């Protein structure tokens, strides 16, 4: 009788916990700027929200019949886009939590530059034996942060007035041209151009 009562109590507690998790997930989907996704062990979608449908640009039935990686494939075909998708695929095979895998994803009807950046974070879902049964995670739009980072990197390496490479980039290029210790010598050349009356430019527009 005690065992039976304990089993019933454990089932009620599990149901209560499941209801609480469901409420938290619904609240997250309604109020968070991130988008929740959930897939099974084979990567097929098991939970498809309206926000996920809008984000990925496919009907709910289409998403439920495919995998997360395959859904992203047509929009991550080459270069940086393909590298991000490969990183996501590898992470899903390791059965370990992962954070901030950045994907460059093109708009469905956009041009070559019509792209956004998504950051994907997830944890594996485990059964009672500790085996991975799927994944639950979020997709965050980090386009604004990525563009800000690119702008700062540009300002660090290019002159804001002329758009020409600045001294920081010159030093980096020179360091790359010089052979590292132990490497065979390479031929390099540095050309210096002297412009007459350039002091007036510095005085009027800045050094």
Strand-residue proportion: 15-25%
- The number of E-state strands comes to 5
This entry's quaternary arrangement is: single chain
Strand order of the largest sheet: 2-1-5-4-3
Structural class label: alpha+beta
Q: How would you spell out the order of helices and strands?
A: HEEHHHHEEEHHH
Rg value? 26 Å
Name the shape in a single word: elongated
The helix count comes to: 8
- Spans of at least 5 consecutive residues with low confidence: none
What percent of residues adopt helix (DSSP H or I)? 40-55%
| Mean pLDDT over all positions | 81
Span between termini: 87 Å
> Largest beta sheet, briefly?
5 strands, antiparallel
Overview features:
alpha+beta, single chain, 46% helix, five-stranded antiparallel beta sheet, elongated, 5 strands, 8 helices, 207 residues
Explain how this protein is built.
With 207 residues, the chain is an alpha+beta fold. 46% of the residues lie in helices and 19% in strands. The protein has a five-stranded antiparallel sheet, with helices on both faces. The mean pLDDT is 81.
Short description:
This protein is α+β, with helices and mostly antiparallel strands. It is built from eight helices and five strands, in the order αββααααβββααα. It has a five-stranded antiparallel beta sheet, with helices on both faces.
What's the layout of helices and strands?
Elements: H1 2-31, E1 35-40, E2 45-47, H2 50-56, H3 60-64, H4 68-72, H5 79-93, E3 98-106, E4 115-126, E5 132-141, H6 143-157, H7 167-177, H8 199-205
